[in-house]
Fold:
Amino acid sequence: MSLIQALPHLNAVLNAVAATFLAAGFYFIRRGEILRHRKMMITAAVISAIFLVSYLAHRANAPIFEFRGQGAVRPLYYGLLISHVALSVAIVPLVALTLWRALASRFDRHRRIARWTWPAWMYVSISGIFVYLMLYQMYPS
Ligand code: HEM
Structure:
C-alpha cells in the first residue's frame, strides 16, 4: 500500500481522535475546568488542521472513489457525504473565530458562537468516520 493509499485510513483515525478531544473539551468546560478545556480544544484544532493537510494531499493525488453500494444505502451515503462536505467547509471559519474569541479572552462571545461550532465540528468528525467506513470498508471497490 502506497502512502497516498494509506491516507484515507489515517484521516479516519485523525477524525476519531479529534472527536475524542472535542468530547473531552466539552466535558471539562461543563465541570468548569477552563485550562483543561483550553488544552483539549487547541489539540482538537491542531489534529483537525493535520487532517485537512492530509485530506487535501490525498484529494490532489488520488482519483475520486465511486460509491459501490446499491439500493437504499445510496441516498443514505450521499446524504451523509453532502452534509459532511457542506458543514466541513462552514466550520473552518467558525472554528477560527471561536478560537480567536477564546484566546482574546472574549468569553461571553466565545460561548455564544461555541454553541454552534462544537456540535457542527463534532458532526463533521463523526460523519467523516461513517463516510470512510461506508466507502472503504463496507463497500470497497
Ligand atoms: C474552537 C475551539 C473551541 C470550542 C469549539 C469551544 C467550545 C466551547 C463550548 C461548547 C463551551 C460551552 C458553551 C456553553 O456554555 O454552552 C465553551 C465555553 C468556554 N470556553 Fe471554549 N471552546 C474552544 C476553545 C476554547 C479556548 C482555546 C479557550 C481558552 C481558555 C476556551 C475557554 C472557554 C471558557 C472560559 C468557556 C466558558 C465561557 C462562559 O461560560 O462564560 N475555549 N467553549
The pocket of protoporphyrin IX containing FE is lined by residues 26, 29, 34, 37-38, 41-42, 45, 95, 98-99, 102-103, 107-108, 110-111, 114-115, 117-118 (CB under 6 Å).
